[in-house]
Every structure is written in structure tokens, then in C-alpha cells.
Amino acid sequence: MRILSIFVLSALALTAAAQKYTITGTADSKYEGKNVYLINQDTWVYTDTAVVADGVFKFDGAVEDQALFEINVGNKRNRAYAIVEPGAVVTVDFTQRPPVVAGGLNDKFAALEKEVAEKGNVLNAKLQQLQAEGKSREEIAAVAEPEIEAIYALYRKAIDDNKDNMLGAYVFSMVAPQFFPSLESLEAAMAEVKYAGKVRTLVLERESYLKAAATQAGKMFVDFGGFALDGTASRLSDYVGKGKYVLVDFWASWCGPCKGEIPNLIELQNRFGGEKFTVLGVNVWDEEDKFKAALTQEGITYPQIYIPRDNKDNATDMYGIKGIPQIILFAPDGTIVQRDLRGVAMKALVEEKMK
User: Are 93 and 163 found together in one domain?
Assistant: First the structure.
């Protein structure tokens, strides 16, 4: 009996270690014969590939625990996310927009999204009515804020109610930047959600916070490379840490707020540019021809480093930058004086340092 019990326990352990799942899907006729990719959102590894045949595709696999997968049909934009549990049967309908995922925890997520959409539609109708009535921005905001908070509350409740399963982690990953603005708040929340460490976007979000923390005021600059206007290699260290203050502007030609700061940067360069100070533009997330055209259009003459999208050095990632413009003042020795500079406050800080 003892030997039999050992064999039974071993069999149960093996069953728990890897149980089968099935994902079946439907797709439009334009995707006939196209590949469908299954990507594990923990490792970002392509787990499996299927082909759309007669409008359907299927994945058969096994998982040891709950997992989140991206299902990608034909191109990166045509994708859906599915929570897969051991023994799960999941369906994905790509003939609908957005794709409909059903089965297990995916049904609870679909119900959440439906409720959010319904509240969002009601809010949009109210806002359109208020605009038609000529209400002020402040009056519209007074109506919108509690409605938006009610939508946020749905996401918060979903996370709280599902801390012990992948649904909680998936919803968490969707709202982390809005709900948890600091490293401390993010880490505290991740510690309470069982599968948070299994969703790579959350892990990367935490890493971004860590990098931002490592490049705060008082820290030494982190070097990166790109290209000067003539195509030659150029690095941040060619300018920073060379004995002058350097005001570094991470920007892109398509970014409206970035363009709004350019006159301020030109003014500072004209007033103080020289042996003690310079402005340096770092163009990111852009196309080279549009970047160069913007230099002429905006009247920019201060030096630039262009960072191609496929550059080996990811400058914004190194500084934990999630949005632009991000303007940072570096001291003559290369330490960071202040981040997140804009407008009047930025000009006042540079004026103070130039006295």
C-alpha cells in the first residue's frame, strides 16, 4: 500500500506539473493560410505557431500553472490576450473587433471590459452634450472626474477580487502606470498580486521605475550613443561631464508638447550658450527625415543626437522615460541637477545656475 501511495502521489504531481490546454480560434478570410503565433507574456517566447485553415486555427499545449498568452494573427496589431489555466478550453474570435476571448477567467475579463465600455459610452455622451451646451472646461471636468473614478474603481475591484489568479495580474498590467506612479507603490501592489511577476510588462514597468530612480537628481549621468546630424557616431558623454551645464531635451518631431518647449530651449541657448552652458537635443521614437525637417521648421541650431528606433542603446529606457518631452539639466561634472523640467521653472533654474 505504501508503494502504491507513492506511485499515486507521483502521478498526481506530474499531472499538476503540466496539464493540457486547448485554444481554438476563428479568423477572417483575408488571413487564410496566415500564421498565428502564441507568445508567452512571462518570457516573451514564441510558444507555438498555427495556420489559419478554412477560417479556423488551433493550439494544443500544456501549462504547469496559469499563464497569459498573446495570440497574434497575421500582424502585430491583430492580437488578443488569453488567460490559460491547466486544463483550460479557450476560444478566440478574430472576426470581431476587438477580438472576443472566452473560457475560464477570460469570461470574467470580458465582463469587466463590457462594464467599462458601457460606463465609457455613457460618459462620452454626457461630455458631448456638455460641449454642445457650451459648458466650460472646468464644468466639464467637474462632471467627468467622478465618472472616470467610477471606471477606475472597476479595475481596482477586479485586481482586489483576483489577487490570487492571472486575471488580477493582467488587469494590474493594464493600469499600473496610472494607478501606481512611484516605485514604492508599484512594488507594494505587485507583492499582493500572485502572478504579477509572470506578466513581463509589469516586470518591465518596475525596471523602468528603477532606472528612473537611478537617474534622479544627484546621480551621475548614464551614457548612451546615437548619431550626429552628419551621420557620425555621437554620445551623451561627448557633451555631458565636460565642465559645462548641459540641458538635454528628449524629443520627437511629432510631439506637440515637445514643440511647445523648443522656443524656451532656443531662448536659453541664445542667452547662455557657450563655455558654461549648452542645450542638447536627443531625438527619440522618430523618423530621421522628419527629425531633420523639424530642425529647419522649428529653427533649432543647438546640437543634436539622433537615436534610431533600432539603436542598440535605448536612451529613453536607460533613463526610465515613459513620455516626452523629458528635459534634464546636467551639472558640469556630469551629475543630474534636475529632471522633468518645463517652461518657466526650467528657465529659472538655468538662470540661477548661470549667475
Answer: no
Instruction: Identify whether residues 253 and 344 lie together within a single domain.
Output: yes
The total domain count for the chain is 3
Same domain, 193 and 262: no
E strand or H helix at 68, and its extent? Answer: strand 67-73
Does some domain include residue 218?
no
pLDDT of residue 13: 41
- Residue type, position 166, single letter: M
pTM of the model: 0.74
Band of pLDDT at residue 10, cut at 50, 70 and 90: very low
Number of Cβ within a 10 Å radius of residue 353? 17
What's the length of the chain?
355
Q: Which domain holds residue 73?
A: 15-103
Residue 5 counted as domain residue? no
Amino acid type, 308: P
- Please tell me whether residues 55 and 155 are part of one structural domain: no
Helices (H), the chain: 2-17, 105-132, 137-161, 166-179, 183-192, 200-213, 256-272, 288-298, 315-318, 343-354
- Which CA distances in Å does 114 have to 119, 152, 154? 9, 14, 11
Same domain, 57 and 125: no
Whether 295 and 328 map to the same domain: the answer is: yes
- Would residue 219 count as lying in a domain? no
pLDDT tens digit sequence for 201-227: 899 889 988 888 899 999 999 999 999
Domain membership flag for residue 91: yes
Per-residue confidence band for 273, with pLDDT thresholds at 50, 70 and 90: very high
Q: Dihedrals φ, ψ of 277, to 5°?
A: -155, 145
Is residue 74 scored above 90 in pLDDT? no
Are residues 169 and 147 part of one domain?
Answer: yes
Coil, helix or strand at residue 250: strand
| DSSP per-residue letters across 100-155 | EEESTHHHHHHHHHHHHHHHHHHHHHHHHHHHHTT--HHHHHHHHHHHHHHHHHHH
Cell of 345: 521653472
